[in-house]
Amino acid sequence: MYVRIHATSKPKLMFLASKYWCVFLNVLKNSSGSAKMLTLSSLIFDATGFAQRLACKSASSHGPGLGSEAEQFNVVTTLTDSGDVLEMVKSVIPPLQRSKHKGQDGRLATIGGCKEYTGAPFFAAMAALKTGCDLSHVFCAQEAAPVIKSYSPELIVHPVLDCDDAVEQTCAWLPRMHTVIIGPGLGRNETLLKNVLAVIDRAKDLNIPMVIDADAVSELSEHPEAIQNYTKAILTPNVVEFNRLYRNVVGHEADPREPVGNTMRLSQKLGNVTVVMKGENDIISNGINVLVCCGDGSSRRCGGQGDILAGTMGTFTFWAHKAHADPDKEPNEFLKHFQPTLCAAYAGCLLTKRCSTLAFRKHKRSTTTSDMMSEVGQAFSLLFDE
C-alpha cells in the first residue's frame, strides 16, 4: 500500500480538492481486480525516506519551508508517488510499439560543452536518451567533441559551437529537433554564450520547446529579454542562479523565507515562463500554478545531478506538448489544467529524485552522477510502468 498526500489552497481548484485535502491508503489493483503483488524493491522504496514524506503531508503548511505566501497561490504539494499528478505524467508517456520508426518518440538537441566541461552535456544528452527519446544530439565546442564521443557511441556529436559560422551550422539542424536543452557545460566563454542566445532566438521562431540550464540561465540573467514571454521554455536554476536571475528580472533580492512567492513572481515577470527552483523540494511554477515535488532524493550532492534533470525534462517536455496537442488523444484533466511545461518539469524532478534515492541506497557517500544514470531505467519503471 502507498500513502498519498496532497494539498491545494485555492477554492477554484475544487475539482482537485476531493483528493487533495485527505490522506488515504490505496491498494493497487490489477486488471482482474485482485490485489497486485508488491515487489521487494517497491516495498523497500515505500519504507525509504519516510521522514521526508511525513514532512510533506501537512496541508496547512504545503510542505516544508514554502513560506506564508504559499497560501496565496494555487499550490499543489506532492510526494513522488502522488496519485493524480503521477497519472498526469503517465498520460503523456508514449507507448512502446514495434510499428514506430526511429525518431517518433523524440529527437533532442543538447547545446553545451566546452574544453573544460564535457561531462555535463554527456549526462544531459544521455539522460534524455535513457528516459526514452530516440535520438540525442550534442552541439558543442570543437575541443569537447572527441571527449564526448569517447563517452558513448549512442550520442550524435556536432563540434560546431565555436566555429565562425556556429549559429548557422547549429540552426540548420533545429527544424529536425523536438526539444532543445541549452546550457550544460557551456562555460563562460563570451563567444559561446553569444552564439547560444542566437540559437534561442531561432528556436523560438520555430516554436521548439526548450529546457535552459546552468550557464545559459546565468546568461539570461543579463539578457532576460531573450526568453521573455516564451511559454514553451523551462528554466532550471539552482539557488545561486535563481537569486541572480530574480534580482535582475524582478528588481530586488528574493526573500529566502518565501520560495513559492519568489518562484511565482519570477515566472510572472518573465511572461509566464516556467521556472524550476531546484532544491530539497523542487518548486515549479508557470506564474499561474505551482507544483512542489518533495520527498525522495538523497543527501549526496555530487556535480552533474542537474544535468540529468535537464535531460529527463527535455524528453518529457516533447512528450507533454505532443500529448497536449493530440486531437485524437483523450485529454488528461490535470494536464489541461497544469499545461505541458509544468507536467514535464514535474516529471523530470520526479524521475531525478528517484534515481538519486536508488543510487544512494546502493553507494551511500560514494554516489556519483554516473551511478544515478545507471538507475534511470529502474526509476522510470518504478514510477511510471503499470
TrEMBL record:
Q: According to its UniProt record, which reaction does this protein catalyse?
A: (6S)-NADPHX + ATP = ADP + phosphate + NADPH + H(+); (6S)-NADHX + ATP = ADP + phosphate + NADH + H(+)
GO terms assigned for molecular function: ATP binding; ATP-dependent NAD(P)H-hydrate dehydratase activity
Domain YjeF C-terminal residues, every copy = 85-383
- Read off the Gene3D superfamilies from this record: 3.40.1190.20
Superkingdom of this protein's organism = Eukaryota
> Keyword set for this entry?
ATP-binding, Lyase, NAD, NADP, Nucleotide-binding, Phosphoprotein
**What are the recorded Gene Ontology BP terms?**
metabolite repair; nicotinamide nucleotide metabolic process
Residues annotated as binding (6S)-NADPHX are G185, N238, V239, V240, E241, F242, N243, R244, D307
Looking at the keywords, is Acyltransferase present? no
Q: What is its EC number?
A: 4.2.1.93
Q: Which PANTHER family match?
A: ATP-DEPENDENT (S)-NAD(P)H-HYDRATE DEHYDRATASE, ATP-DEPENDENT (S)-NAD(P)H-HYDRATE DEHYDRATASE FAMILY MEMBER
What the protein does?
A: Catalyzes the dehydration of the S-form of NAD(P)HX at the expense of ATP, which is converted to ADP. Together with NAD(P)HX epimerase, which catalyzes the epimerization of the S- and R-forms, the enzyme allows the repair of both epimers of NAD(P)HX, a damaged form of NAD(P)H that is a result of enzymatic or heat-dependent hydration.
Q: Which NCBIfam families match?
A: yjeF_cterm
Question: Its family?
Answer: Belongs to the NnrD/CARKD family.
UniProt-recorded name of the protein: ATP-dependent (S)-NAD(P)H-hydrate dehydratase
Q: What is the protein's species of origin?
A: Acanthaster planci
